[in-house]
Amino acid sequence: MQIRSLCLVALLAAAPAFAQTPRPLVLDDQDNERVLSDPQLSPEGTWIAYAVAAVDKKQDKAITHVFMTSWDGKQTLQMTSTPNASEKKPKFSPDGRYLAFLSGRGDEKEIEQLWLLDRAGGEAEKITETKGSINDYAWSPDGKRLALIVEDADPDEDEEGEAKDKKKAKKPIVIDRFHFKEDIDGYLGKKRDRLHVLDLADRKLTRITSGEFDDAMPAWSPDGKRIAFVSRRSRPDFDRDDNYDVFLVDAVENATPRALTTYPAADNKPDYKSPLAFSPDGTQLAYLQGPSLKLFEYGVRKLAVVPVGGGAPRLFAESLDRNVRAPVWSKDGKSIRLLVEDDRTVYLGEVSLRDGALKSVLQGRNVVGAYVAAAGKEAVLLSTPTAPAEIFALDNGKPRQVTKHNAWLQTVQTTPADEIAFKSADGTEIHGLLYKPPGFVAGRKYPTVLRIHGGPQAQYQLSYSFEMQLLAARGYLVVTANPRGSTGRGEAFSSAIYASWGKKDGDDVLAAVDYVVAQGMADPARLGVGGWSYGGLLTNYVIARDTRFKVATSGASASNILAGYGTDQYTRDYEMELGRPWEATQTWLNLSDPFLHADRIKTPTLFLCGEKDFNVPLLNSEQMYQALKSLGLDTQLVIYPGQFHGIKRPSYKRDVLERYLAWYDKYLGGSAKEGGAP
Question: Which range has the worst mean pLDDT, 161-175, 402-416, 657-671?
Fold first, then answer.
């Protein structure tokens, strides 16, 4: 057993000092948080552009704007400020004159177009008029063209982009694809994301690729003649698996793409959020080679480099049993820096192309969310348990904070995350995080909430979580675990629950509760549990096998796994992992224990879900609610109109947390006043 507390003083030394005594964190503080993303260094290395998302309470939505901060951190400029629309994904032109971004401003349907902002002054100019949104883009090396990923127009609109006769019924939705639905996108038809090139001189948009395939993640070769991208166009029926490959195509109309990779797995799957990267001399391309199709998200993604002229890819740091992403070449082409996911952290590493050795460049008990480099300068996006992500410049490898968008937190009482380790039922060591209420008193037993993460291929990290801080501020001891199935501990650890959910990972999260009870911190008579997505699913498994929990919250969850087939977006994953229901019926039934044996549940449970969730559809929560209602248990079902798998509307996000607090307080006797101790 071990417990280790985090010291964050060094990382926050640059933050302003506040004289007043820190106040308790309250629910209203959710609207104060600023979320930073997409840092980009200017070519000369003197400015860092990035996006900042903030809640607009009046419009009840999060709005993102583009900012720039000087390298020394002394000057911060807000570059965009449209009141009712977001601007995102800023990228400098190669000569540094322009700052491009994507925005749907000025469009009723918020179809995102490409905009250019001249850094010499003046208003941003919209330079595209596509019928469908632009999802991604990349500058050519000479700055005269841009590669765009453009979504097809809505087939229910006419050529002018207006909705067809509104008095008539919409066309029937005709489905003929194997993978036919997806969260947010809805029912999938013939719309595709296609590669185009925009010439800045005449604003001409040229379609590069053809065929009924989706293209993603464009990257220009250094000579500006070709574009690399990822697609499943090698597959005759691409909907049946995630076998992405990397392609290279000449940047001319209707060119024929050439496959650079043919590995039967997900080479640089867009979900990895890892850009393709050409070597400085243009002869090689770095990308991520995914695990086998059989393991899909349970497997580990590795750094690969493929010769652009043809030949077999080479894996680097091959023995590293951890996920990596976002490769960035050194200027001399001899090494690649990248982000490495490790136990509860993400650090910046460097791989030598001479011998494949990996070394740590920036490692600590924190999470590095992004890395950028230009003109000999480097910067990272970095978060800790008590501080949301901010941008840090690297001075001789040491982080120096240059943005302070969340300095308000210095006036608030937050709690660090203690790292804990404990043994599961079979002796496997499990790691987690523990959040103590502010003013924690040793020897006192606190009402305790076990929170379970989604995925399951994810991990609780040493980064900021408003939810954890709020529960702790309420007076709860909050315990989290990264059970088997989680990432950050290697492929065998992650795949240990393959086709067997709720058992080993159920043992692991219950062991976290056993641990804090044994340490004398948790009151065994006042235990709660909850999670979202797979975290909600595992919550259902846990309360169906263990009656010690006095209360539970289950968000966007499932229990009757058989009901998921054909009603959610995971059919191909199900068939890979579980087999087809008519061929492996018992496997599906075994995984449906919480629903088929709902009579074992004694825990009052709050179910929550988005109305339009296609990831884990509402019907799953409805079934569990109905089962517990039939059994006479105290239960509620809360449905958020118009929301998908992740609740985005700020007022609904607040409502979720309010209901968490009220439901836990009702059964665990938590504080009736935020910030107080029970």
Answer: 161-175
Would you call 325 helix, strand, or coil by DSSP? Answer: strand
Residue 38 · residue 416 · CB < 8 Å: no
The 3-state secondary structure of 34-72, one letter per residue: CEEEEEEECCCCCEEEEEEEEEECCCCEEEEEEEEEECC
Q: How far apart are the C-alpha atoms of 386 and 619, rounded to whole Å? A: 37
Q: Is the pLDDT of residue 503 over 90?
A: yes
Q: Give Dmax (Cα) for the chain.
A: 73
Hey, what's the torsion of the CAs at 331, 337, 338, 344, to 10 degrees? -150
Note whether residue 94 is domain-resident. no
What is d(CA 23, CA 18) in angstroms, rounded to the nearest whole number? 12
Is 60 exceeded by the pLDDT of residue 63? yes
Average pLDDT, the chain: 93
Reply yes or no: is the peptide bond before residue 22 cis, omega within 30 of 0.
Answer: no
Q: Please report where in the chains the tokens 């000999």 appear, as a residue.
A: 376
First to last CA, the chain: 28
User: How many Å apart are CA 439 and CA 455, to the nearest integer?
Assistant: 33
User: Per mean pLDDT, which range of 198-202, 240-244, 275-279, 380-384 is the poorest?
Assistant: 240-244
Element (H, E) at 652: helix 650-668
And the tokens for 631? 């059994």
Which residue range(s) make up the domain with 479? 417-668
Q: In what order do the strands lie in the sheet containing 145-151?
A: 134-139, 145-151, 193-199, 204-207
Instruction: Give how many domains the chain has, as a whole number.
Output: 1
AA identity, residue 591: L
Alpha-carbon gap, residue 507 to 28, rounded angstroms = 36
The label of the residue with tokens 């061929």 reads 583
Q: What is the DSSP letter of 615?
A: S
pLDDT digits (tens, 9 = 90+) for 430-442: 999 999 999 999 9
CA–CA distance, 472 with 450 (Å, rounded to integer): 12
Convert the pLDDT of each residue in 71-125 to its tens digit: 999 999 999 999 999 999 999 999 999 999 999 998 888 899 999 999 988 899 9
Q: What is the pLDDT of residue 162?
A: 52
Q: CA nearest 183: which of 545, 546, 645, 502?
A: 645
Q: What is the CATH number of the domain that holds 576?
A: 3.40.50.1820
Contacts of 614 (CB under 8 A, 6+ apart): 181, 182, 183, 184, 185, 186, 568, 569, 644, 645
**C-beta of residue 308 within 8 angstroms of C-beta of residue 283:** yes
pLDDT tops 50 at residue 282: yes
**Cβ 466 vs Cβ 660: under 8 Å:** no
45: exposed, middle or buried (Cβ count in 10 Å: 0-12, 13-18, 19+) = middle
Radius of gyration of the chain (CA): 25
Q: Which two tokens stand for residue 551?
A: 């209360």
Contact 445, 522 (CB under 8 A): yes
Residue 524 lies in a domain: yes
Task: Spell out the alpha helix ranges (H) of 579-640.
Answer: 585-590, 593-596, 618-630
- Residue for token digits 């000087």? 70
How would you class 359 by CB atoms within 10 Å of its CB: exposed for 0-12, middle for 13-18, buried for 19 or more?
Answer: exposed
Q: What letters, b where the CB count within 10 A reaches 16 and e where it falls short, cover 271-290? A: ebebbbbbbeebebbbbbbb
Residue 35 lies in a domain: no
Distance CA 374, CA 377 (A): 5
Mind listing the pLDDT tens digit for each residue in 33-60? 999 999 999 999 999 999 999 999 999 9
- Cα separations (Å) of 166 from 132, 156, 157? 20, 10, 10
Bridge partners, residue 443, by sequence:
none
Residue 621 backbone zone (phi > 0: left; psi -120 to 50: alpha; other: beta): alpha
With contact defined as beta carbons under 8 Å apart, do 2 and 421 qualify? yes
Indicate whether 408 belongs to any domain.
no
Q: Can you read off the two tokens belonging to residue 501?
A: 């959910």
